[in-house]
Amino acid sequence: MSEDGESDVQLVRRFQRGDNDAFDELVRRHQDRLYRMAVVWLHHDQQAADVVQEVFLRSIRGLGAFRFRSAPFTWLYRTTRNVCHEYNRRRRTESLETEPGDPSPGVEQQVAQLDAAHTVRSLLAGLPERQREVVLLRIFEDLSVRETARAMGCREGTVKALLHKAKARLRLDLEGEVI
Amino acid sequence: MSEHGKSSAGDLRSLKRDYRTLQAPPFLASRIRAGIDARTANRANRRPLLAAVAIAVCVLAVLPFMFKQEAAQQPLSMASLSMGLTTVRLPSTPSLAKLRSVRTPALPPRPVPPPRDKSGKETDVQTRYPKEKTHEVT
């Protein structure tokens, strides 16, 4: 799970000993991944950033008492998913309009990102929730089948089956887009 | 792999590339750090308040044990017990039957009118007050 020398587990251990730099390193390492997932779940860029912030605020307490039964990223992913569900529920009750990410004018990088995000979102939006989740984790985030199963709270066989169905459906959708 | 399969895999790869171009907004990490610091500061500010509340709860819990409870342990005397029971048994609402049962003292005898002669004038003038003079306008 780590791109640098130190693994997530080591960082969490350091954080539990009171090292705040370790926590900042965890934030730097995972903020983009969690943000991408939140964007797909919420279809809203600003709220996705809010979700990532909320997840790390919750993780101060959660990771402080973390028992290493799963990978720290798995815990972060599950928290992100839960917070996204809370946001979606709240949005449904408040019946807010969900404009998919209004970019600040003149920011080219954001515009390019939003184009990409729009393509990804529109394709993933056609998938059922569990299939979308498996595509995010297994294909886009390169998690192993085992890690994906742990993150989703299901068996590895279920992950494989879901992945097979999701790929077939995505292929159909992609062909439709090309045509 | 067939041509169709290759193109699909390529599409998936490009989809993944698109997905990976998504990045968290700049300064998100510092925003998170600021949020954490603010929350930690809030907790630190609440600490004295929590301590005060905890002390108050402890004092309230200990307070009953600080006084002797002998009076409560002694049995009530029969007099105070019966008085209490009588008070309890009294009806709280006014009752009409109760009002009718109340005896009032007898009225005094009617006064006897003064004796009069045949013409109808009062004879016992001494018992009468002098009549008021009417002021007639002449």
What topology emerges from the helices and strands here?
The complex is a heterodimer of chains A (179) and B (138).
Chain A: H1 8-16, H2 20-42, H3 45-64, H4 72-94, H5 108-125, H6 129-140, H7 145-152, H8 156-178
Helix pairs in contact in A: 1-2, 2-3, 2-4, 3-4, 4-7, 6-7, 6-8, 7-8
Chain B: H1 3-21, H2 28-62, H3 70-73, H4 78-89, H5 96-101
Largest sheet of chain B: none
Task: Count the E strands of chain B.
Answer: 0
Rg measurement of chain B, Å: 51 Å
* Mass-distribution shape of chain B: elongated
Question: Would you list the SSEs of chain A in sequence order as H and E?
Answer: HHHHHHHH
| Helix percent band of chain A | over 70%
What is the number of independent domains of chain A?
2
Give the overall pLDDT of chain B as a whole number: 74
Our measurement of the CA-to-CA distance between the termini of chain B, rounded to an integer number of angstroms, reads 147 Å
> What is the name of the CATH architecture of the largest domain in chain A?
Orthogonal Bundle
Number of DSSP strand runs of chain A: 0
User: In percent, how much strand structure appears in the residues of chain B?
Assistant: under 5%
Largest interface: A-B, 33 and 21 residues
If you consult CATH, what is the topology of the largest domain in chain A?
Rna Polymerase Sigma Factor, Chain: A
CATH homologous superfamily grouping of the largest domain in chain A:
RNA polymerase sigma factor, region 2, helix turn helix motif
State the end-to-end distance of chain A. 38 Å
In terms of quaternary structure, the protein is: heterodimer
Helix content of chain B: 55-70%
- Fraction in beta strands of chain A: under 5%
Largest sheet of chain A: none
Structure description:
The complex is a heterodimer of chains A (179) and B (138). Chain A is an all-alpha fold and 179 residues long. Chain A has 2 domains: 1-98, Orthogonal Bundle (Rna Polymerase Sigma Factor, Chain: A); 106-179, Winged helix-like DNA-binding domain superfamily/Winged helix DNA-binding domain (Arc Repressor Mutant, subunit A, Orthogonal Bundle). Chain A is built from 8 helices and no strands. Chain A has helices spanning 8-16, 20-42, 45-64, 72-94, 108-125, 129-140, 145-152, 156-178. In chain A, helix 1 (8-16) crosses helix 2 and helix 4 crosses helix 7. Chain B is an all-alpha fold. Chain B has a domain at 1-67. Chain B is built from 5 helices and no strands. Chain B has helices at residues 3-21, 28-62, 70-73, 78-89, 96-101. Chain B is elongated and about 145 Å long. Chain A binds chain B through residues 23-24, 27-28, 31-32, 34-36, 39-40, 45, 49, 52-53, 56-57, 60, 112-113, 116-117, 119-120, 123, 139-140, 167, 170-171, 174-175, 178, and chain B through 8, 11-12, 15-16, 18-25, 28-29, 31-33, 35-36, 39.
